[in-house]
Write a structure and sequence with these properties.
about 130 residues, five-stranded parallel β-sheet
């Protein structure tokens, strides 16, 4: 079985490093992208098993990253989870069509909880 790939679109170097370490420990292949544009490019190039997406990014918003990925044929069924500290579920729901279970609020989760959510999401068939 091939190692699942996870694109991490996160501008906080501290959080990104923690996420990458956790993904490595759980046998995922992480690809870190500190900007939204890099996240879109990496997602379309690598077609990862999952995208972990921050909303507030230095160049374009996570909402725009989400829209650009979803606008592609591959991206219509890409697995995406949002990690955010600054957005409400209502604001997220207004901007993107993502199930509430796929939105995690920083710092309301532990790395173990996130690892479990990632494993569950990757095991679920993309729709």
């Amino acid at each position: 079985m091939e190692t699942p790939t996870v694109v991490v679109v996160e501008d906080s170097s501290y959080l990104a490093e923690s996420l990458i370490d956790m993904l490595d420990m759980h046998n995922y292949k992480p690809i870190h992208c500190p900007t939204g544009r890099e996240g879109v490019a990496a997602a379309l190039e690598h077609k990862p098993d999952l995208i972990l997406l921050d909303i507030r990014l230095p160049d374009i918003s996570g909402y725009e990253v989400y829209r650009q990925i979803r606008a592609t044929t591959w991206g219509q069924t890409a697995r995406i989870m949002v990690l955010t500290a600054s957005e409400s579920i209502e604001n997220i729901a207004k901007n993107i069509d993502l199930p509430h279970a796929d939105v995690l609020f920083k710092p309301d989760w532990s790395m173990q909880q996130l690892a479990a959510a990632i494993a569950k999401k990757i095991a679920t068939p993309a729709t």
